Model the fold of this input.
Amino acid sequence: MQTSVGINVPSRILDWVLNIGSKDRLTDAQLSNIREWRSGASLPTVKDIRTISDRLQVPFGYFFLSQPIDDTPPVCAHRTIGSRDIDRKPSRDLVDTVYAMSALQDWARQDRIDHDEEPFDFVGSVAVDVDSAGLTEALRQVLRLDEYWYRDGANSNPDTAFVYLRDHAEQAGIIVMMSGIVGENVRRRLDPEEFRAFALIDEYAPLVFINRADEPASARLFSLVHELAHILLGEDELYNDKSVSVAVTPVERLCNAAATALLMPDEDFSMAWGAAGGDADERIRAVRKLFPVSWVTVALRALHHRYISEEQYDAVCKRAKEWTATQKSRNVSSGGNYYATKSSRFDHRLLDRIVASVAEGRTSYTEAYRMTGTNRRTFQELLKRVEP
Done:
């Protein structure tokens, strides 16, 4: 009869994985077992370690290191939450998502280099001491937008505007990814309270990731433009500034101002406000229909112009917060079409390059499946769904 072999995991490693992992997912029995392993009263088996690894959401190999390591992605050093710097450790959901996007970015960078393509000159092309008008104009040039792009078609709708600006960003060479879960694991939902988006700077493969779990659609749109501004400034960033009225650093205030100006130019806003009739609430609703922004953004601009009072602005923020909470409760069990969801997550131009690389024999199907989160069947079906 075969006996499972116990493995001595140093207490410093156990303490470390508990510190960086999702400790709240452990049961009381599992915590008790870990205390016994730490004291040496018993030893875990490989199966035990794998179970704890899965529960903590930390790599299995971490348990076999001789010393703890710092696996915090560099971008997490550039975090803001609620308009303030934070020191608490990032969740494993965030860490794993950043590393997955970094791996995609590394592949895209090497692919461009292998094809002797030049780096993008717009990455880091704008100095951080520029004013918001200069940054807004630079965004328009890179994205090839005119000042009143939001008047075309249904672009005043945030969902439509997101698709429109995402497509323009991808055409410019910026990779735009979006998901509300970690990889393909629907049980690991990304928390918008932790982050809304992040930007990873690379002159060959600049990348923006949008947290799909963030609501409403106008929030995702604002995050996209905010992160595109960071690409032009050449600064990595992880974003979750829930209030555009206050920002923790001059760079954040600059990006917020540029994003707001791109989505709702001040002169156009003032004209729309003056043309709208009724009380403050009616005017906010009327102006909101003309721009792909939230009620709060319209109210904030009105507050800056002293069209409304602080009390009226606070009331709008309260109603918006209540609406967002309602949407979250409605969307908890939402499913949707697998391929439509998968297609919305992935940058289509990057997918085209992966397919071309597979056809050229430079990338294996196995690697393509790993990067796209697919398998032999779903990969081919996904390609059919995203073909123009």
Notes: The first strand starts at residue 175 and ends at 179. The chain has a mean pLDDT of 89. The CA atoms of residues 263 and 271 lie 15 Å apart. The chain has four domains: 1-59, 77-263, 265-333, 338-386.
